Amino acid sequence: xxxxxxxxxxxxxxxxxxxxxxxxxxxxxxxxxxxxxxxxxxxxxxxxxxxxxxxxxxxxxxxxxxxxxxxxxxxxxxxxxxxxxxxxxxxxxxxxxxxxxxxxxxxxxxxxxxxxxxxxxxxxxxxxxxxx
Length: 132
Ligand SMILES: Nc1nc2c([nH]c(=O)n2[C@H]2C[C@H](O)[C@@H](COP(=O)(O)OP(=O)(O)OP(=O)(O)O)O2)c(=O)[nH]1
Ligand SMILES: [Mg+2]
What we know:
By secondary structure, the chain is of the alpha+beta class. It has helices spanning 46-58, 120-130, and strands spanning 2-11, 17-22, 33-34, 37-39, 61-74, 78-91, 102-106. It is globular, with a radius of gyration of 14 Å. The structure holds 8-OXO-2'-deoxyguanosine-5'-triphosphate and magnesium ion.
């Protein structure tokens, strides 16, 4: 089975809002909301891929990112290992640079069902941490 390594950025501002983007209608996990990110290339570390993908997809230059969790998930015919980072430092203002819809959501108001199934434990952890 195909196995992807993916770098994912949980972009969080000083008001504890998180930047979400909507996946395109033609992609895997179509129309679901996601944390921006993408495939780690063979010559890259997860942190390097994160910086490249967030620049490509949201226009920001990441200046501070902390590893948050590594999550493995198998979809019908695709295995993904997602390397999640909390991103709290950047230059610029994130936007949907590839034309994708985006929105800022208070961390406490994230809804797990809006995300691909692999994200459910991550969203649960973000909700638990903000409500503690
Ligand atoms: N970016 C992102 N991908 C996720 C999340 N959750 C999740 O299961 N995935 C899966 C969907 C895809 O099968 C896989 C790879 O992500 P991607 O489609 O963003 O990869 P990419 O940006 O490199 O895509 P592309 O260049 O082929 O358009 O990770 C998430 O929160 N963010
Ligand atoms: Mg992507």
